[in-house]
Amino acid sequence: MPPIFSVDPRSGIPIYLQLIEQVKRAVALGTLDSGEQLPTVKALALDLTVNPNTVARAYRELERDRVIETSPGRGSFVRADGSPSVVKRAVTDVAASALSDAVRECRSLGCDAPAIRTLLEGALERWFPGENS
Predict the structure, then answer these.
(1) pLDDT tens-digit profile of 43-70?
(2) Which of 21, 28, 102, 120 is deepest in the core (most CB within 10 A)?
(3) Residue-range domains of the chain with CATH
(4) Which DSSP state fits 108?
């Protein structure tokens, strides 16, 4: 079975945050279903060649965000209760992160807020033609 998660230590984004986003994205896209078991901390750390504490931190944050639940001795699972709200929150978190990255990139290219707003409005019109925002 191919690994479902990967990390890039040179990306500048902390590894635990990369894992959190990937789990949320997998939940949002349905790659991870409600009730599905995640790899153990030890197995995922070994697979990604990262410190187990890094994986444990990501799992703790995901549990705090109510995306997963951990049962001692059984493992960590995508939350089964309230699945639609978990998926909706995961979609919102992933989308917010992508938009934030896009705005940061525009700003680094020298765009100011009005220019970014114009670009965003153009993209919205392209993807949702004729819809009033």
Answers:
(1) 999 999 999 999 999 999 999 988 999 9
(2) 28
(3) 15-127 (1.10.10.10)
(4) H
Q: Which two tokens stand for residue 116?
A: 């970014």
Q: Which of 133, 130, 110 has the alpha carbon at shortest distance from 120?
A: 133
User: β-strands 75-78, 68-71: how paired?
Assistant: antiparallel
**123 burial via Cβ count (<10 Å: 0-12, 13-18, 19+):** exposed
Instruction: Work out the average pLDDT over 90-114.
Output: 89
CA-CA distance, 89 to 39, in Å (whole number)?
Answer: 22
Round to whole Å and give the CA distance between 117 and 92. 20
How far apart are the C-alpha atoms of 69 and 132, rounded to whole Å?
40
Token match 């078991």: residue? 37
Distances (CA, A) of 17 to 6, 82, 84, 117, 125: 12, 24, 23, 27, 31
| Predicted TM-score of the model (pTM) | 0.72
- Return the exposure string of 72-81: e unless at least 16 CB atoms fall within 10 Å of the residue's CB, then b: eeebbbbbee
Q: Return the SS3 of 32.
A: coil
